[in-house]
Amino acid sequence: MSGVAPVSGQAERIGGELLRVDNVSLSFGGVKALSEISFDIKKGEIRSIIGPNGAGKSSMLNVVNGFYQAQEGSIHYKGVTYAPMRPYIAASNGIARTFQNIALFRGMSTLDNIMTGRVLKMKASLLEQALYMFRGKSEELEHREHVEKVIDFLEIQAIRRTPVGRLPYGLQKRVELGRALAAEPDLLLLDEPMAGMNVEEKEDMSRFIIDVNEQFGTTIALIEHDMSVVMDLSDRVVVLDYGKKLADGTPDEVRGNQDVIDAYLGVTHD
Amino acid sequence: MAEGASYPDIAVHDTFPKLLRHNASVRADRAAMREKNLGIWRTSSWAEVKREVDRYAAGMAELGLKRGDRVAIIGDNRPRLYWSIAMAQTLGAVPVPIYQDSVAEEMHFPLSHAEVRFAIAEDQEQVDKLMALKERLPTLEHVIFDEPRGVRDYTLDYLHDYEDVVAMGDARLAAEPGFVDAQIDAGEGADTCLIPYTSGTTGNPKGVLLTHDNLLTAAYHGAKFEGLRESDEILAYLPLAWIGDNVFSYAQSFICGFCVACPESSETVLTDLRELGPTYFFAPPRIFENILTQVSIRIEDASKIKRDMFHYFMAVARRVGVDILEGKPVSMSDRLLYRLGEILVYGPLKNVLGLSRVRIGYTAGEAIGPDIFIFYRSIGINLKQLYGSTETSVFVTIQPDGEIKPDTVGTPLDGVDIKIDQTGELLIKGPGIFKEYFKNPEATEEAKDADGWYRTGDAGFLDEDGHLKIIDRAKDVGKLNDGSLFAPKYIENKLKFFPEIREAVAFGNGKDYVAAFINIDHEAVGNWAERQGVPYASYQELAALPQVYDIVLAHVEQVNRDLAAEARVAGSQIHRFLILHKMLDADDGEMTRTSKVRRRFIAEKYLPLIDGLYSDAGNAVIEAEITFEDGRKGVVKADLRIVDAAVVLAATAQAAE
């Protein structure tokens, strides 16, 4: 799609550090959503953030892309330190995301929704775009072609012209992924991409996530509740509970961690 | 009939590769294929197709493909897969198209039986299936894939990217420019050009060995009959492995030089149809039925003005539409009304359906309801029925323009002879008849006699105008005790054309009269009950309502009147019937997975009901086992009412006419 050469093999796929979260703490009034969280995301990996409800997973993603600003700590991204990260810096530096609750323009078609993912790449003036002349025309064609590649990739040709509000939930989720992909991100943040899906839809979505990662080398940070999905897809997993980091490691390491088991089963032990 | 069309001399261009070469020289720049890719229709000219096929063939020769080898072709309708057929035929190899939606297990038989050495797979899905079977396919040496997505990371020696093969071909062609022409010239009409496998309802599928002569001649006569020309367009959306697609979207395109378009994906067919506006169109009856149902539903939801306008003009169309289409005399006022209807209703409707430009539309495979058939013809779509099968290279009979009857399949094409044997079975002889079943001499002997007559297994007869009428599978046709013909499917189809009747099973072989089980259509009858305010709790209760019996009785008696009008089947009018308390279902073994009634099984399972039908009883009690959706089984007991239907005496019916 973006001319990135396909990469194969686990070792080659994963590179050096792309993003590091350093000692981040976030509170809303008296509620401490995140406390002193640190972890890193390596280039090319699929990194999952898991934890029970209210563990601070979505807040964590929101801090990473600058939607929330943490009171303490910093975000290191592509070698630059941001304290805090700002949304427009994140967006213009290749961080794209999807939302837990679908945030699409319901009255607009699939095509137009995905086209909005290209906004930051458009250079033509409002007038040029309105008149469909000069850069307005050439850019439109170029971006449309890119969007078509995303549509082809996600196999949603049949709903190209359908208003998103009329689509079933699973397809809306796919369109949202499409919009994020249209921005050609280096780091893709997916907030519960499979929530509310049936088994078949989950399998499709898992396939797309793996394909995005393998074909375009996109780094993915994933929040997901379905443990089998997380364990299958992820290279590494970080576990949060009540705003604290419980564990961090490969799926196997995390699975065997007593703290994690307790957090999920609700056991208290002394 | 064939104005504006010119056909190549098929005695000279007697193979498909020769026709391709011919097209690339006489209509080099005309569109040969279109495919929608990244939202844009991309067109390849005949010259481009020829160049691509040459490179592809040379590349495959480098990989070792040689004359006589079998090449499996598996995937959706993609240009490169059609080119794979042409490539194989160029080298004298034999394409074996495989249904793309088969699971790996189902593919194993044709792949191993045909001993394929090469397989062309569309994408990862098909490659994965082949990989799963690879160990059990000792003859399979190479797999070529079209769409690299997901496959490019596979590191298997026998997997090749289409692009790489074509690049290999370039090298070969540079070293040996005359290679492809020499290959083409080595081929002749009697060579095998395709081995499609028939689905086979019983036993293993059979590979039908067809030669260039078979397919070319049949497709040629079909094209000539309809006056197909190079300006026609078709949308190739039915399975590549089905003989019909091969004839309509490949053979006839090569003969006439018309353009074949491939849909963007299987889900976008309706949109693609609207965008392209094909002039030549095939669909099975089921699709025409579905389109009509959707139109009806949407019209009922439209505003009153639109709805009234639709119904008014559809009444006009029903009255005169078919006559206008067939060029029969119609009064001036009706002509004007119809023209107004064309502007207000028929034109926009055809446009939405993507059928505005259709010159020739075909349907076949099953009987089509006369109402549905006439609906399309009355709005000006030249829909026709044809008869044929894989073994006959499709074309046996077509309805000629101007002589179209809803219940026949037309007259035999040039060169095709048909006859009916004593048992009523239809036999066919002609240039399109297959050579043999591949590696299956017993089956060949059974189906084809020494003089070349092919036993179709269908029972039919020729009507007074020489039109062929298919009534049933020959093995299902029987006789009543008085000796009159009993063709169950013929009767059942007549019943099923009523929307309230979902399924019907007719009995009569070896009995005194015909009796039937009826399954009502839950949706249609449920809707009716809702509108009438008739309460019911379950399907069983709905099926037992006296009002529902009245509706069905009226339909049965209508069918009896229809049957009485036809001398051959007048004896098989329905004397008694009952409405079943449950839907016939594949889960209960009463139907096949393709929704065909399993008569023998039903006859055994519902024996008490059949006894009731052939007695004087007014009811019959049955206990039937049913399978719930979660797999549990239960027993349903029902007391069903049996009703007598009025029978028209054949003699009276004829006198009344």
Would you mind describing this structure in some detail?
The complex is a heterodimer of chains A (270) and B (657). Chain A has 270 residues and is of the alpha/beta class. Chain A folds into two domains: 12-94 and 185-270, 3-Layer(aba) Sandwich (Rossmann fold), CATH 3.40.50; 106-184, no CATH class. Chain A contains eleven helices and ten strands. Chain A has helices at 10-13, 57-64, 87-92, 110-116, 126-131, 135-154, 169-182, 199-216, 227-233, 251-255, 258-265, and strands at residues 17-28, 31-42, 46-50, 72-77, 80-82, 95-98, 187-191, 219-223, 236-241, 244-249. In chain A, strand 9 (236-241) and strand 10 form a beta hairpin. In chain A, helix 6 (135-154) crosses helix 7. The relative contact order of chain A is 0.18. Chain B is of the alpha/beta class and 657 residues long. Chain B folds into three domains: 16-276, Rossmann fold (3-Layer(aba) Sandwich); 282-426 and 458-473, no CATH class; 477-656, ANL, C-terminal domain (GMP Synthetase, Chain A, domain 3, 2-Layer Sandwich). Chain B has 22 helices and 28 strands. In chain B, the strands form seven sheets. Chain B has a five-stranded parallel sheet, sandwiched between helices. In chain B, strand 20 (454-462) and strand 21 form a beta hairpin. Chain B is globular and about 85 Å long.
Quick summary:
Chain A is α/β, with parallel strands linked by helices.
How large is the radius of gyration of chain B?
27 Å
- What Rg of chain A is obtained from the alpha carbons, in whole angstroms? 19 Å
Total number of domains of chain A: 2
Largest sheet of chain A: 6 strands, mixed
The strands making up the biggest β-sheet of chain A line up spatially as 6-7-8-3-9-10
CATH evolutionary superfamily of the largest domain in chain B: ANL, N-terminal domain
CATH topology of the largest domain in chain A: Rossmann fold
Structural class of chain B: alpha/beta
β content of chain B, as a range? 15-25%
- Which strand-content bin applies to the residues of chain A? 15-25%
CATH architecture descriptor of the largest domain in chain B:
3-Layer(aba) Sandwich
Question: In this structure, how is the largest beta sheet of chain B organized?
Answer: 5 strands, parallel
